[in-house]
């Protein structure tokens, strides 16, 4: 019976058009202990050309990371995000739900409607309701597609300040300002 459960789970994952939640998998297969079945199936695929992966609470089969280069095909390059788009996406990811005015306050400049439209079109952000303040501004949050695209299991997997420093991704001016703020706060040498 266990082998039949794993075969049903494997078939459901292969036939799925998109990654599936454990609840969707349980409903599709009738498996009661879906977590245990996913663990067993993942173990069965260890070392194979495909791997069972979980991103944002959704499960799917993907090419094993060490073999992905074999399957790269020439395809149209997706439209690249502008610097404003990347900054806006980062602000939304780290501060969600966040309104347009809050994004602009953090960035220090206004954002064009096209920036949010591009992120909405990519499926990486979605409207997340309205704030209960005058004007009732619309807020934005990231989507499961955002997590899936960037191979994040959850928002907790976003890099922290120390990770960004180690990767050399912080602007030297930002680092100097941060150091000055610490000195001003009486934290001494950093």
Automatic annotation (TrEMBL):
Superkingdom of this protein's organism: Bacteria
Protein name per UniProt: Segregation and condensation protein B
Keywords recorded for this protein, A-Z: Cell cycle, Cell division, Chromosome partition, Cytoplasm
Species whose genome carries this gene: Sphingomonas vulcanisoli
Pfam annotation, one family: SMC_ScpB
Keyword Cell cycle: yes
């Amino acid at each position: 019976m266990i082998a039949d459960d794993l075969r049903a789970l494997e078939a459901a994952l292969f036939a799925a058009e998109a990654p599936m939640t454990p609840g969707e998998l349980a409903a599709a297969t009738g498996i009661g202990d879906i977590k245990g079945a996913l663990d067993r199936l993942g173990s069965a695929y260890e070392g194979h050309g495909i791997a069972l992966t979980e991103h944002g609470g959704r499960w799917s089969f993907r090419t094993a990371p060490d073999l992905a280069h074999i399957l790269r095909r020439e395809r149209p390059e997706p439209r690249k995000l502008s610097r404003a788009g990347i900054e806006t996406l980062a602000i939304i990811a780290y501060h969600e739900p966040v309104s347009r005015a809050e994004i602009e306050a953090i960035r220090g400049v206004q954002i064009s409607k096209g920036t949010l439209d591009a992120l909405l079109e990519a499926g990486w952000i979605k409207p997340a309701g309205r704030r209960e303040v005058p004007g009732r501004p619309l807020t934005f949050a990231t989507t499961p597609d955002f997590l899936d695209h960037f191979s994040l299991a959850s928002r907790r997997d976003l890099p922290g300040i120390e990770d960004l420093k180690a990767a050399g991704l912080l602007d030297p001016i930002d680092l100097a300002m941060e150091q000055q703020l610490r000195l001003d706060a009486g934290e001494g040498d950093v």
